[in-house]
TrEMBL record:
Family: Belongs to the HMG-CoA lyase family.
Residues of the signal peptide: none
Keywords, ordered alphabetically: Lyase, Metal-binding
The name this protein goes by in its record: Pyruvate carboxyltransferase domain-containing protein
Single Gene Ontology BP annotation: L-leucine catabolic process
SUPFAM superfamilies assigned to the protein according to its UniProt record, in alphabetical order: Aldolase
Lineage, broadest ranks: Bacteria, Pseudomonadati, Pseudomonadota, Alphaproteobacteria, Hyphomicrobiales
Domain of life: Bacteria
Species, as recorded: Candidatus Raskinella chloraquaticus
An example Gene Ontology molecular-function term: hydroxymethylglutaryl-CoA lyase activity
Residue ranges annotated for the Pyruvate carboxyltransferase domain, each copy included: 9-281
Length: 313
């Protein structure tokens, strides 16, 4: 990932995209950019800045191109990512200068239809088209991440089989994505399931492709699941500052793992994230002020950074 600083773990901030997608109140473009600038100043190696969905379906992202272009103009050694649910979205994201495209194929057939109105096979083909489009960018290498929502369960179908997750992962690897992301869209995963799924997906896609994990904290198991991921060898994790987030097609899904809490856990364990936790709190203050009615869920924000922080043995 980007940045010169030595890191043991890469955290991708998904607040401006995944975090904002359920927030009804529109955050002004200028405020989003101030928030992203403050986030970038914390040392985050990657920020998922916007979603290139049609503005009619998610008015919050009507300014996606302005956000990505504005983010690219900020001076920082970090990567600007954007969600591209289809080829049109990918064209717009690339045109705005996105350096990483997040594409998705749900493991659950029902979630795929609800979220993208396409079945998994058609969505895999679209990801293949997006990879080809990204490879045509002149003079720069745009990374494509193939994310698999509902990798650990689905609010519509319930249990999602390991075979389904592995088949989608193998199809995505075949389509040429740079990494595979396992996403717990609804937050039903547990540490044992996380370990088992990572092992199975590793067998399905081989050792060469990197893995990313994305957890929601619906059942309070987000950090435990990340720990299971770390033990299984994954070092790239998504998180949203203030624990913002949800999924419009996954009722009951609560926020992402809070970036503040994840940084706290990892740094206290002696792992380097490269992220300044005080600057992170200051960045989240911008968001909190812009969304006074939104409930933020970060233990570190509520308790404050304790004196023991940074005193890891
Ligand atoms: Zn999510």
């Amino acid at each position: 990932m980007h940045g010169s600083q030595q890191r043991d773990v890469d955290i991708c901030e998904v607040g401006p995209r995944d975090g904002l997608q359920l927030v009804g109140e529109l955050v002004p473009t200028e405020t989003k950019l101030r928030w992203i600038e403050a986030l970038a100043a914390t040392g985050l190696p990657e920020i998922d800045a916007a979603s290139f969905v049609p503005a009619t379906s998610m008015p919050q992202f009507a300014d996606a191109a302005d956000i990505v272009t504005g983010a690219r103009n900020l001076p920082a050694p970090w990567r600007v990512g954007a969600l591209a649910p289809n080829l049109r979205g990918a064209e717009r994201a690339l045109g705005a200068g996105a350096e990483m495209l997040f594409c998705i194929v749900s493991a659950s057939h029902s979630h795929s239809l609800a979220n993208t109105r396409r079945n998994r096979e058609d969505q895999v083909r679209i990801v293949g088209d997006i990879v080809r489009l990204a490879r045509q960018e002149k003079g720069r290498r745009v990374l494509v991440s193939g994310g698999i929502p509902t990798s650990f369960g689905c609010s519509i179908e319930g249990r999602v089989s390991e075979a389904d997750v592995c088949r989608v992962a193998a199809d995505l690897a075949e389509s040429g994505v740079d990494e595979i992301g396992l996403a717990d869209t609804v937050g039903y995963g547990d540490p044992a399931l996380v370990s088992a799924r990572i092992k199975a997906v590793r067998r399905a896609v081989g050792k060469d492709i990197s893995l990313r994990l994305h957890f929601h904290n619906t059942m309070g198991l987000g950090l435990a699941n990340i720990l299971a991921g770390l033990e299984a060898g994954v070092t790239v994790f998504d998180a949203a500052s203030g624990g913002l987030g949800g999924c419009p097609f996954a009722p009951g899904a609560s926020g992402n793992v809070a970036t503040e809490d994840l940084v706290f856990m990892l740094e206290q364990m002696g792992m380097r994230t490269g992220i300044d936790i005080d600057k992170l709190n200051a960045a989240t203050d911008i968001l909190a002020k812009a969304l006074p009615n939104e409930r933020l869920r970060s233990h570190v924000r509520e308790a404050g950074v304790p004196k023991v922080y940074g005193c890891a043995a």
